[in-house]
From TrEMBL:
The lineage of its organism: Eukaryota, Metazoa, Ecdysozoa, Tardigrada, Eutardigrada. Its main location: cytoplasm. This is Vacuolar protein-sorting-associated protein 25. GO terms for molecular function: protein homodimerization activity; structural molecule activity. Belongs to the VPS25 family. It is found in: Cytoplasm. GO terms for biological process: macroautophagy; protein transport to vacuole involved in ubiquitin-dependent protein catabolic process via the multivesicular body sorting pathway.
Length: 178
């Protein structure tokens, strides 16, 4: 069973220049890599999946209150573009205001869901989307309380692999694992 891991900010978080985009390109590259790693670790340990650019600057992730430093919106956008470039972010809208932080790829989520279903004897059984996301049986799983649209994308990947069938009835969504 997956447990919520303890999270600690890296040393850079308490280093004021970390919050200012560095002019030297080599240093900037390292800075973007460090921020990318921090975002992925933060989102994973807090089981978060969606970033809202409008709210990001006030998040404790991008605003170190003890240093009275926060990243500019432009720098946050630059870091998010780096995450997108490396396959760890997918925009949810054309304006690039909200996106999924993919600390696991959609295919990895699909594998995790399928492994859970098989390990828990759910083969040839219908599970509701609600039970997968919020049920007691999944409370210790990393996909518990994940974004519903992201969950549906993972289930769609399983469907394409012929490992599951997504079922929609009366506005409710279920999945049958094979």
């Amino acid at each position: 069973m997956a447990s919520k891991e303890r999270f600690e900010m890296p040393w850079q978080y308490n280093f004021p220049p970390f919050f200012t985009l560095q002019p030297n390109l080599d240093t900037r590259k390292l800075q973007l890599e460090a921020w990318s790693a921090l975002i992925l670790k933060y989102f994973r340990s807090h089981r978060l999946h969606i970033i809202d650019v409008n709210e990001a600057q006030s998040s404790p992730l991008f605003h170190n209150v003890s240093l009275n430093r926060k990243l500019s919106t432009e720098t946050i956008q630059l870091i998010l573009e780096e995450l997108r470039r490396t396959g760890h972010l997918e925009w949810m809208d054309k304006q690039k205001r909200r996106g999924w932080i993919l600390w696991r790829s959609v295919d990895d989520w699909a594998k995790l869901l399928y492994r859970w279903a098989i390990d828990n004897g759910m083969s040839n059984t219908v599970c509701t989307l609600y039970d997968l996301l919020h049920g007691h049986d999944t409370a210790d799983e990393e996909f518990h309380n994940m974004d519903q649209d992201l969950m549906q994308r993972a289930l769609k990947a399983l469907e394409l692999q012929k490992k599951a069938e997504v079922i929609s009835m009366d506005g409710n969504i279920g999945v049958k694992f094979f």
